Amino acid sequence: MGEEEYCVSQNDHLVFSQDTLAFDTVIAGESTNTYDFWVFNHNKKALRITSVSVGQGNTSPFEVNVDGTWLANGVGTDFTLSGEDSLRVFVQLTAPTTDQDEPQSVEDFIHFQLESGIGQRVILQAKSQDVNILRGDVIEENTLFQSKRPYQIYDSLVVAKGATLQLSAGTRLYFHAGASLIVHGTLIATGTLENPIVMRGDRLGNMFTQQSYDDIPNQWGGITFTASSLGNDMTWCDIHAGNYGIHCDSTGIEKQKLIIDNSIIHNVAGDAFYAKYCQTYVGNCQITNAGGDCVNIFGGDHTFIHCTIGQFYSFTGGHGVALSFTNVDNDIPLPLTRCQFINCLITGNNDDDIMGSASDRYQDCAFSYIFKNCLLNTPKVESEAIQDCKFEEDTEDKELRKSGNFSPAFDFDKLKFYFTLSPKSAAANAADASLTKQSGYTTDLLGRPRLSDGTPDIGAYEAQPEEDKTEQ
Question: Is the pTM above the cut of 0.70?
Fold first, then answer.
């Protein structure tokens, strides 16, 4: 190619797909996913790029690859970009640890020097979060987690029998792939509306452009309360993107196994809430989107009040229903002494989202359930066990029966789901106020009053104007 075929005018320059490459918050000391951007030459003739360099050189936490060539020590030379062609730049970050609780800014730039003397740059930006790393830890005595830094958990975190793990408001547990919280003893997790306790995977970046790993299920294991675990209490907790949500093993019904309220269990690959012959109480909670069932009960004593239970799982492999309950497991009788749902919204995109099945073989085995003042996505039936309930099939508008209960509806393309209640839903103003007062859940999951107009709404959320967009 002759010299005259290159652009040498200072009017000729590169065009970038973005002027700033912004990383999400990253965990300090860990290499991130690879981010990228494009460099274009819109001129007819080629451009010579005499050098591409990272601002901080070999001390930069950013590693850069230009069209397949790593910049050794942060510098590369002699690149040619043909006319009307492009090249791709790849960037990876390993942010330094700083021993700081709050996220720290990490910045640098990539400088492109053209033969014409023109210099151009792309800014690199990120936030780096230091974490407390736990590897195969077993809690053998009463322990309090209250650090402002997240806990990154490898190889699962185990609470031994007889020990109590207490989580203070604002605690964040980031679980590595396959890691779970296994409780043989007791868990006391006390979050607040302003500072909830978060349990999620430890992949903080995007799976691909604008699609966060945090919106993808199966990023970590889940929470298991084993047969020896009793007296667990969780409030204002956000549990999401796991292989499963909460799994309660059998302990009998004489003692409380779990109280959970003001909490969210969302977007898991298996069951979101599984309970086998034990005693649980679930109040003012959102339990949504499961590859298995959102709530799956095998015998026991269970109360759900002011809960939104919604099955809109959108990933491949199918999904279960919003609610399944029975009094038998693999031909073993498990008496269902109480299974009550009060002021609950139980919905989904199945034709029937409530599956209750009593054992044919053990006809004397207890199978006691009741629905009071609920909105149900199941074929309408007259029964003493269904009191003052509404059925979605009575709603003429099919869209209103499904995602139309919520305000606004879902954005499946971006995997965003909105479970705040639409004022158009049949659940609006349909709860029993006396049962709301009796339960003590006089504010919804966002802290908004339920009784200000005297007519609370069914589910975990009070209906608000259409511009409200609480996404999960």
Answer: yes
